[in-house]
Amino acid sequence: MARRGFQQGSLFQRGTRRKLWVARWWEDLIQADGTLGRLRRSEVIGTVAEFPTRRLAMQVLSQRLGSINSGKARPQSVRTFGDFVKNDWTPVVLPMLKYATQKHYRYMLDVHLNPAFGKRQLRELTREELQSFLSRKLSNGLSWETVHHFKCGMSKILGAAEEWGYIAENVAQKTKLPRRQHGPERLVLAPVQVRDIVAALNEPARSVTLLLVTPIGTMQSLLGHSTPDITREIYLHAIPEEQRRAVESVERLVFGPKWTQVQPSTQTTSGRVN
């Protein structure tokens, strides 16, 4: 007598020119309302050329059903990626992140992740699908850093889904990116060059320049602030007009007096200089 929950599954052939072995079995799942249900699953396990006999195909199917028959397989959810992000991840996890990180995640979800995976069921997402998505973004011209953020974002979201029992594994952790290609080396001013520039500037350009070249961590330590955010909020604020004058002074010093006459102001409505 077969023990409770044990199943052998079924096999049949499909196709004419290229015949395939198709397997069917039952899987437990978590429905959208949180209740348990069962789903009849169908999957191609190989071609008849690869497995000439039914016995060989049944061996592959038995291996596929091993985790289910042993009781190790956990029911997975039929919820979509978009539904999970909207109703679970965004209200619970997103508020725990920094404000700038929240804005970054909202941008990624709205522009890239939800359009690609929003209607896909969490349990159906595969490593190959995510890998293809990342490779496609790189081919479309996005930077390595941007695509790496997509990978980390998907891993964080699917990691929460795995932790909360909606999926069995986080497939985003198995994706890889090509070796990072570094661009041309950026020009960095030497300390003596910074000193000469500061000495040639008048206020408020001198103070703004010193703020720009001083690491925020150093300022935080010297001023005794508990976090860098406090230092930024108090000391990295400048009146828009003073900002404009400071930038123009630095531009005249570095690029010559004609620079500010030719270049239009890049100041935004928020008072920041791009």
What's this, in brief?
By secondary structure, this protein is α+β, with helices and mostly antiparallel strands. Helices cover 49% and strands 11% of the residues.
Question: Describe it for me?
Answer:
This protein is α+β, with helices and mostly antiparallel strands and 274 residues long. The chain has three domains: 10-73, no CATH class; 81-174, DNA polymerase, domain 1; 191-262, no CATH class. Helix content is 49%, strand content 11%. It contains twelve helices and four strands. Strands 1, 2, 3 and 4 form a four-stranded mixed sheet that branches. The longest helix has 20 residues, at 144-163. It is elongated. It starts with 9 loop residues before the first strand and ends in a 12-residue tail after the last helix. The model is unreliable at 258-274 (pLDDT under 50).
List keywords for this structure.
four-stranded mixed beta sheet, 12 helices, DNA polymerase, domain 1, alpha+beta, 3 domains, disordered C terminus
Name the beta content range. 5-15%
Low-confidence stretches: 258-274
Distance between the termini: 75 Å
| Shape call | elongated
- Quick one: how many beta strands? 4
Arithmetic mean pLDDT: 78
Give, in order, the helices and strands: EEEHHEHHHHHHHHHH
Outline the secondary-structure elements:
Layout: E1 10-14, E2 20-30, E3 36-47, H1 54-64, H2 66-69, E4 76-77, H3 81-92, H4 99-117, H5 127-139, H6 144-163, H7 191-200, H8 205-213, H9 216-223, H10 228-235, H11 240-255, H12 259-262
Parallel strand pairs: 2-4
Antiparallel strand pairs: 1-2, 2-3
